[in-house]
């Protein structure tokens, strides 16, 4: 009787091991897909100047990333490293341009920001060490100082130590 019982246990154990390996394969090569603004997402070192060319903020780290809507909108966020900017912009995905008109600035309660002339250009920038990278530029006006135009110009972060600020 023990022999039959041991054989049944071995058979069940073998079946469980086989099923655990066979049941997880989706087959083929599945892809997770992407987001609508993935070509423009990333980290950027941006210098902020005023209209007379004076530097207001020297190369602060900003990020661009997809919104939860996954439509033609994207976040621009400096995580309080620059001029306290976190707002949603509308992208023209074909041209790499973006704008925002009086949208909430989430890093400054009760304020809005208008972004004009926004553009991301592939391969048009140079990193600190001279590597060819993407370029970002735009103008911003905040509701608390509507006559002051800030000019944002920067390049994509490479991750190389010689390119860090």
Description:
The chain is mainly beta and 165 residues long. It is built from one helix and eight strands, in the order αββββββββ. The protein has an eight-stranded antiparallel barrel with strand order 1-2-3-4-5-6-7-8. The protein starts with a helix and ends in a 9-residue tail after the last strand. The model has no long low-confidence stretch (mean pLDDT 90).
How confident overall, as mean pLDDT? 90
In the sheet with the most strands, the strands line up as 1-2-3-4-5-6-7-8
Largest β-sheet summary? 8 strands, antiparallel, barrel
* General form: elongated
The low-confidence parts are none
Structural class: mainly beta
What's the count of strands? 8
H/E element string?
HEEEEEEEE
Radius of gyration: 25 Å
Q: Helix content range of the residues, please? A: 10-25%
Number of helices, where a helix is a run of at least 4 consecutive DSSP H or I residues: 1
Gap from first CA to last CA? 76 Å
Strand content: 35-45%
Descriptive keywords:
165 residues, mainly beta, eight-stranded antiparallel β-barrel, 1 helix, 8 strands
Topology:
Elements: H1 2-22, E1 42-49, E2 55-66, E3 73-77, E4 86-92, E5 97-104, E6 112-126, E7 132-142, E8 150-156
Antiparallel strand pairs: 1-2, 1-8, 2-3, 3-4, 4-5, 5-6, 6-7, 7-8
């Amino acid at each position: 009787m023990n022999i039959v019982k041991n054989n049944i246990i071995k058979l069940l154990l073998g079946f469980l091991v086989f099923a655990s390996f066979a049941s997880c394969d989706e087959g083929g090569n599945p892809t997770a897909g992407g987001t609508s603004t993935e070509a423009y997402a990333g980290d950027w070192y941006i210098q902020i100047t005023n209209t007379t060319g004076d530097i207001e903020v020297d190369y602060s780290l900003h990020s661009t990333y997809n919104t939860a809507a996954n439509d033609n909108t994207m976040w621009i966020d400096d995580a309080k490293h620059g001029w306290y900017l976190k707002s949603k912009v509308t992208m023209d995905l074909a041209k790499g341009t973006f704008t925002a008109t009086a949208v909430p600035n989430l890093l400054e309660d009760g304020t809005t920001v208008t972004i004009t002339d926004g553009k991301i250009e592939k391969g048009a920038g140079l990193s600190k060490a001279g590597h060819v990278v993407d370029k970002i530029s735009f103008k911003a006006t905040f509701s608390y100082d509507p006559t002051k135009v800030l000019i944002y110009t920067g390049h994509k972060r490479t991750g190389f130590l010689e390119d860090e600020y």
